Amino acid sequence: xxxxxxxxxxxxxxxxxxxxxxxxxxxxxxxxxxxxxxxxxxxxxxxxxxxxxxxxxxxxxxxxxxxxxxxxxxxxxxxxxxxxxxxxxxxxxxxxxxxxxxxxxxxxxxxxxxxxxxxxxxxxxxxxxxxxxxxxxxxxxxxxxxxxxxxxxxxxxxxxxxxxxxxxxxxxxxxxxxxxxxxxx
Length: 185
Hints:
Strand content: under 5%
Oligomer: single chain
Number of strands: 4
Structural class: mainly alpha
Order of helices and strands: EEHHHHHEEHHHHHH
CATH topology: Hypothetical protein af1432
Low-confidence stretches: none
């Protein structure tokens, strides 16, 4: 890994596998997003790009087939890359998943991939609502809405959620909870 000012060469680190991945990694927005972040709980690696590398490593073990692997790679590259644009002056403008979806709509039209990019944190938020905020009935409604929206896309969503959650020092309880709620996918 070549380092300039302690910033990894993300093209070498993330190893794009096709023209689209290479183009994304060359855009200024992606580059800015990949270097964003400091070490924190759940993300001890700090920079988004280092987290993306961890998730990509997990994709190699979670993808059921080559099409799913390609979809998971796109979700992985985009999912947290727009965190740097989420807040302004301490106020959330838009969730980073929605910002990433909007950006990716300029490059892809696959609604399955776009939905997962947008909703990638939703299962965590639902778990938090049910288990930490003491709002199980609201969480049940929100989970039902998520499952309806995902429909047949649930296996891809769950595969990504597993790949993302099993990184850094993230708490695994949300993953186990979600797996129990949806049953074997």
